[in-house]
Prior knowledge:
Layout: H1 5-10, E1 18-19, E2 22-23, E3 25-26, H2 37-50, H3 60-80, E4 88-91, H4 94-105, E5 114-118, H5 127-136, E6 139-143, H6 153-159, E7 164-170, H7 182-191, E8 195-199, H8 211-214, E9 218-222, E10 233-237, H9 239-244, E11 255-258, E12 263-265, H10 279-295, H11 297-316, E13 321-324, E14 333-338, H12 343-352, E15 355-356, E16 358-360, H13 365-371, E17 376-380, H14 387-404
Parallel strand pairs: 3-15, 5-6, 5-7, 7-8, 8-9
Antiparallel strand pairs: 1-2, 4-10, 9-10, 11-12, 13-14, 14-17, 16-17
Helix pairs in contact: 2-10, 3-10, 4-5, 11-14, 12-14
Residues 93-95, 122, 124-125, 170, 174, 199, 201-202, 222, 225 line the site of pyridoxal-5'-phosphate.
Amino acid sequence: MPFNIQKIRKDFPILKRKVNGYPLVYLDNAATSQKPQQVIDCIVDYYSNYNANIHRGVHTLSQEATDAYEISRQKIQKHFNAKNPFEIIFTSGTTHGINLVAQGFSEFLKEGDEIIVSAMEHHSNIVPWQMLCERTGAILNVIPMSEQGILVFSEYEKMLSEKTKLVFVNHISNALGTINPIKKIIEKAHEVDAAVLIDGAQSCSHIKPDLQALDVDFYVTSAHKMCGPTGVGILYMKEKWGNKLPPYQGGGEMIAEVTFEKTTYAGLPHKFEAGTPNICGGIAFGAAIDYLNEVGFQNIEKHENELLAYATSELLKIEGLKIYGTGPDKTSVVSFNIEGIHPYDIGTIVDKMGIAVRTGHHCAQPIMDFYKIPGTVRASFAFYNTIEEVDILVNAVKKAKMMLS
Ligand SMILES: *Cc1c(COP(=O)(O)O)cnc(C)c1O
């Protein structure tokens, strides 16, 4: 399908909105994406026509809901090129998936074992590992990053040893936009038999990862960052880990048989899906993936790279403006500050002009500590943003600078 930005924008009802009297310019896509009509329709259709609990009923509605939910799982499996549908576990999102793995590894780690994370992780990818280390006596090592916001690969290689049990890195940094070399990271970790979990929350709206080619052990993402609803995501785990890892929560759906003496667990993926899941969310996640594939990931990448290049060069023309995250491999995230001005003040002023950017530490305080700044202004672009919107942003930032300095 050819890329027609005006046609695409019509799919997103919220983009017609005005904010403070101005047309909305939504540049907070790294926090959450907007939803196309196709996904909204899918949600309305579910609740209007076949809402029922799944996997339990023999009645028609329950079967329709179960079918739609499982078809969505298969869609997601194909999209990410997982080997089997049961390797896709529905979660409430990235954070849930990470915690599920961290909890499971409690049983495998002992004192002195090592876990490696990167210096550019989201808080949801730091705290569960610190908790895991407290429970087990394992040690957390951190791959440092350079001034450009690139992981220092040679330092990572030095950290790896037979003590390393787990490596956790995000695919793309939400605060800097850096794309990490995950294939190389996974290969190196496997040389010492360490498992790898990749946080894909920030990548799946921009690129289509091939999980079998990556040979990754675990991969997590959230639907809401890829045009789907909030409160649903997936944890991919290789079959061997699915069999090895203990269940995370007890409850309905995850059991094969319960007596007061002993409970046997259901097979994959149900072992990890206790309780009634976000059925509608799971189905709508599939609709979001269909939508993104219809737009086409090549189109998405090309358009977003144009936005990134233009925004970078135009913003850098503003005197005193500094961009954080300047590596060659990055997605359409521009994190910046203007000398002498607090990011929060810029964010507040541009909001008055209808522009949504994020200000603050972006759940990545260690990165802010590294640069010795309180936070940044972050403009993150999606495929439905336009070059004109970049101009609107740049002009608004110039105005904010004039008002504040
Ligand atoms: C958004 C994000 C998360 C957290 O995702 P939730 O949907 O809030 O669980 C984790 N890591 C990265 C890189 C993110 O961008």
